Amino acid sequence: ETSPRRRARIRSAWEVLPEIAPELTEWSALFASGARRRALAEAGVQGAAGRRDADDLIRDVAMFLRIVERMLVLQPVLPQPRPGEGEGGGAEATGTGGGGGNRVESA
Fold this sequence. Notes:
mainly alpha; 5 helices
């Protein structure tokens, strides 16, 4: 049974963010809600956003960045093992060991 795989629709970062960091869901919704206004402003539509809107956005972005920076400092993420690396995936498995070059070992 062969059927062509359907392409997944492209999602914005604001749609994906709540799946990765649920604690940022409200921020994601806030920034996603501005997509239409941003598109109008990028298209050069007069009055798409006023000075107050811009000031509010700058303030919100600054706050969001501070929160994310704190999260990154407080909750460091360890690198995930690459596919094919076993539990003993040390330097030899990654090809970064002191052996001088890439080598292939047979099992």
